[in-house]
Amino acid sequence: MIEAAAVTVRSGGRTLLDAVSFTAPTGSVTGIVGPNGGGKTTLLRALVRAVPVVSGRITVDGQDIRTRRRRWIARTVAEVGQRIDPDPGLRVVDEVSLGGLAERGVLRAGGTAHDEQVAGAIDTVGLTPRAFDRLATLSGGELQRVALARALAQRAPHALLDEPTNHLDLRHRLEVVALLRTIAPTVVVVLHDLDLAARVCDHLVLLHHGRVAGAGPPRDVLHPGLIDRVYDVSTQRLEDAAGRVRFEFSLPPERHLHPDTKESS
Ligand SMILES: Nc1ncnc2c1ncn2[C@@H]1O[C@H](COP(=O)(O)OP(=O)(O)OP(=O)(O)O)[C@@H](O)[C@H]1O
User: Fold this and answer.
1) Is 0.95 topped by the overall pTM?
2) Which residue(s) pair with 17 in the sheet?
3) How many CA atoms lie within 13 A of 144 on its CB side?
4) Judging by beta carbons within 10 Å of its beta carbon (0-12, 13-18, 19+), is residue 94 exposed, middle or buried?
5) What are phi and psi of 245, to 5 degrees?
6) Burial of 106 (0-12, 13-18, 19+ CB in 10 A)
7) CA of 261 to the centre of ligand 1 (A)
8) Is residue 77 a contact partner of residue 198, using CB atoms and an 8 Å limit?
9) E strand or H helix at 81, and its extent?
10) CA-based torsion, 162, 165, 166, 168: positive or negative
């Protein structure tokens, strides 16, 4: 379980997170949603002590992360970042191995079990034919799958994923969605696609201007009134006979992309 209690982050004179609290229970997928610049990535970074927290408390399985070594955090929480910036000289298999290293420690890396774990993770994301290729030769979507394989190989009890589907084609996107629950027992995932978030997440945290604008089951958080207010759009919520929810979004009626057009019309 990951818990944040009244977490505040400031940088460059700005408050990026303002007393943010949420719980990501074990055995569940918690989605972080919200408009651009709302603080989603900052929150994920704070959860692994990658940005300094000025007040509040973050615990991972009850352990205050300020009291733990970086190595413990790296081993306990797998991360798949938004920007994929690996060493282009590494091969796919090397990069995925690093996930195993975080779990086992450098000295005990290698060996059949480790190799099988790495090969299995590469296979799961469909990159076996590219396993010995340099990362520099991979596409954005392929790199994103490498990052997922690395997190899978780590077998950490917690995983943080920042927009893990943003570079992926339809098929691989569905595969990643299907994989989400197998990456770790506790998953926290940043998503922009609210339909997807409603479908795959057990809980959502809606961040707006660094504050929690809504939290709870998707059905409670994703209601048109709140989405309209936070995203400044017009939302229609559609539900089919099987109870599947879909949203349609448009600009609010009074909204014009070019204010000048409004003046002259
Ligand atoms: N190191 C930093 N110093 C100052 N401001 C920062 C820093 N990192 C991010 N910000 C600002 O903090 C705010 C939140 O950024 P963050 O990346 O967390 O948002 P986000 O919700 O993940 O956005 P997006 O949906 O665009 O990825 C933004 O206004 C951003 O410009």
Assistant:
1) no
2) 9
3) 18
4) middle
5) -100, 140
6) exposed
7) 32
8) no
9) none
10) positive
Q: How far is CA 17 from CA 34, 65, 147, 248, in A?
A: 13, 17, 26, 29
Do residues 1 and 65 lie in contact, with contact meaning Cβ atoms separated by under 8 Å?
no
Q: Which residues contact 89 (CB under 8 A, 6 or more apart)?
A: 134, 135, 136
Using CA positions, which residue lies closest to atom 28 of ligand 1? 37
pLDDT digits (tens, 9 = 90+) for 56-105: 999 999 999 999 999 999 999 999 987 667 787 899 999 999 876 665 55
> Could you tell me if the ipTM is greater than 0.90?
yes
Which residue has tokens 């972080």? 32
**Ligand 1: centre distance to CA 166 (Å):** 17
Which two structure tokens, joined as six digits, stand for 184? 């770790």
Instruction: Tell me how far apart the alpha carbons of residues 157 and 175 are, in angstroms, rounded to a whole number.
Output: 21
What is the token pair recorded at 84? 């994929």
Residue in the structure block whose two tokens are 């949603």:
33
Closest to 113 measured CA to CA, from 129, 94, 99, 100: 100
Q: What is the pLDDT of residues 152-164, one digit of tens each?
A: 999 999 999 999 9
> Whose C-alpha lies nearest to ligand 1, atom 7?
11
Ligand 1 environment, Cβ below 6 A: 11-12, 14, 16, 34, 36-42
